[in-house]
Amino acid sequence: MFYKSGDQALSLQEATAITVRDLHKSFGSNEVLKGVSFTANKGDVIAVLGSSGSGKSTMLRCVNLLETPDSGLITVSGEVIQMKKNRRGDSVPVDRKQVERIRSKLTMVFQQFNLWSHMTILENVIEAPVHVLKVPKAEAIEKAKHYLNKVGIFDKVDAYPAHMSGGQQQRAAIARALAMEPEVMLFDEPTSALDPELVGEVLQVMRQLADEGRTMVVVTHEMGFAREVSSEVIYLSEGLVEEQGSPDKVFAHPDSERFAQFLNTVL
User: Fold this and answer.
1) How far is Cα 144 from Cα 124, in angstroms, rounded to an integer?
2) Which residues, including other chains, have CB under 8 Å from residue 71's CB and lie 6 or more apart?
3) If 31 and its partner were Cys, which of 18, 26, 67, 94 is the partner (CB 3.0–4.6 Å)?
4) Is residue 7's pLDDT more than 60?
5) Residue 178: predicted pLDDT
6) What is the 3-state secondary structure (H, E, C) of 59-99?
């Protein structure tokens, strides 16, 4: 069952950025998420680890409502996302305006960059602020230049994605996410599509964002980043949280035998 609107009276602290409780999601007969729960406070960097098929990306997509969860509770900055069952029994948002409002607080950086190939990098970055947030174009351009400079590709403002390396494209995607000035940034394996020599430049930008105190939930296979940068590690296995805790604790003294075996295969 979904939590009803009365649950907004739950004691959600102002410091909480995202709360997920007992999240379930199936695709047909395949139950991908079987009751996932976690909390990200403001300034946290949550690293989400797990083997392929463990539910990591589905969890992230449910938080951003790119996928609709079957049941559970999701709050963003203390606001409960209201869901209901339609006549067919499918889960749907109660209020599309709330979905738009929630999405304005979250941005997602995808594995495959998802830049528009027919637009310059500058045009890619200003598109959502201008058309979704209704930011005046001149202001959006100034912010875009600021964030492109921040991620180290200011010289590519007039370039098209096809003329850039994968690492440059992913940094452009991060600038595009930053231009929305979100409360939380979601990253879905942002380095997995990159050649090994390009991974470092993207991770450097993400480390900088973490140092600035940005709230981030990062699905990743980069163990060094998870160990050194994250404030909390979550390990998913078969749709459940199998291990959760500080990097120092879970990497040195995992409670879960499955997580220990996972570490043996990736470290």
Assistant:
1) 9
2) 1, 2, 22, 23, 24, 91
3) 26
4) no
5) 97
6) HHHHHCCCCCCCEEEEEECCEECCEEECCCCCEEECCHHHH
